[in-house]
Amino acid sequence: MLFSFGFPPTIRSFLKSPPCILLLLLLSCTCFTATEAYDPLDPNGNITIKWDVINWTPDGYVMSKKQLNGQAVVTMYNFQQYRHISVPGWSLGWTWAKKEIIWAMVGGQTTEQGDCSKYKGNIPHCCKKTPTVVDLLPGTPYNQQIANCCKGGVLSSWAQDQSKAVAAFQVSVGSAGTTNKTVKLPKNFTLKAPGPGYTCGPAKIVKPTQFIQPDKRRVTQALMTWNVTCTYSQFLAQRTPTCCVSLSSFYNDTVVPCPTCACGCQGNSSLSGDCVDPDSPHLESVVSNPGPGNSLTPLVRCTRHMCPIRVHWHVKLNYKEYWRVKVTVTNFNYRMNYSDWNLVIQHPNFDNLTQIFSFNYQSLTPYGSINDTAMLWGVKFYNDFLMQAGPLGNVQSELLFRKDKSIFTFDKGWAFPRRVYFNGDICVMPPPDAYPWLPNAGFRKEVSLLALLMTSLVALIFHAYA
């Protein structure tokens, strides 16, 4: 419904016309920012959980002769290019379809045993209808481990290290059936990594997995296999953004800061978390006593933007054939050390990246052959650990680009990134009309899209009167 009251009949009829409705729709699009589960820079990114039933026997898999049990290996693949799972790690939950129980586990454990009072002798590992499984910690005894387990729930992103992007545990299930006709698939899967953000679909039966034996002369296969796919939404993960971007350049003295209240505002802890003045005498006690359940809640330095992470892009030097950029990542969060952090930056000149200093680099090509997206992360044992807020809470590097004369320019903000992600979450960029501009431009046109649309709307109204 259009709010056309208070206008003459001619204007009311114009406001209900298709051109005006289109203008209002465009205007509304400029006022809201949507954060969807689909990521255009990682369109196929997901976490796939695969269940392989290895065997089932009527004797209870050695644990009990009164149940019909199955043994399965559950494997979790992080197919996300740049989103990893950090400490305290993942937790996987589901709802059993019947009255299944877990007799034993290797490589993982449930967080609660549940009510197993009806069992005598051999007590099941878990009797809950809705179990939650977590990874075992590093250093677990070898007789409780399987391959790809025991990392404390930490998973690398697929582009950083595929060998560390896989987790697994083994589970022996009772009262589950003994054939692929009688086994019922679990449902209502949930994945926390470590907080919310992931939505899991239903389990789907797929072609049984094949296993090549160590001698590579024999292939076996699972008796039954099903997959569960979980996708990430930044909107579900947190109510506010977690990072922002500031800009500067050698050709302009203006430093464009992160937008005000980019990740929340001071005095509104329900949206932004708590903040603390770095000169406060009580800083150390506040940081060391987060309170129960608040260890993951950001405690940030009080700033205009209130973001835990700031990424600064500085256009540093201009050569005849090259140009140079300095990237700095600053941690304002007093409660978080970011291990194995990563940046994803989209800029058209990454196709001509010549050299990068003190960061690792990998090209991402979400649009096929177009090479405009780069993933950057720290060098192992050097700067892959981003310390919490303080004097050491930053990492930086420089990038050297070769100029492509067909597209290169410093004009109209071309030298600045189009998108920036930190640890898989998109960062808030400054508005385009605030970017540093060339001093020889004569004058700067302060015309925003909102002003342009309003001017067009007024012009159309006067045209209707004419």
Task: Walk me through the topology.
Blueprint: H1 9-15, H2 18-29, E1 47-57, E2 69-78, E3 91-95, E4 101-106, E5 108-110, E6 132-135, E7 166-174, E8 187-192, E9 198-200, E10 204-206, E11 210-212, E12 219-221, E13 224-232, H3 234-237, E14 243-249, E15 252-256, H4 269-272, E16 274-276, H5 283-288, E17 299-301, E18 309-318, E19 322-331, E20 338-339, E21 342-346, E22 353-357, E23 359-364, E24 373-378, E25 385-386, E26 394-402, E27 419-422, E28 425-426, H6 449-465
Parallel strand pairs: 14-18, 16-17
Antiparallel strand pairs: 1-2, 1-13, 2-7, 3-6, 3-8, 4-7, 5-6, 9-13, 10-13, 11-12, 14-15, 18-19, 19-26, 20-25, 21-24, 21-27, 22-26, 23-24, 27-28
Helix pairs in contact: 2-6
Describe the protein in words.
There is one protein chain. This protein folds into two domains: 47-236, Immunoglobulin-like; 240-279 and 298-449, Immunoglobulin-like, CATH 2.60.40.290. The strands form seven sheets. Strands 1, 2, 4, 7, 9, 10 and 13 form a seven-stranded antiparallel beta sheet that branches. The chain has a six-stranded mixed beta sheet with strand order 15-14-18-19-26-22, with no helix packed on it. The chain is elongated and about 80 Å long. It is mainly beta. The protein has six helices and 28 strands. Helices cover 11% and strands 33% of the residues. Mean pLDDT is 83; it is low at 1-12, 19-35, 59-69 and 441-449. Helix 2 packs antiparallel against helix 6 (449-465).
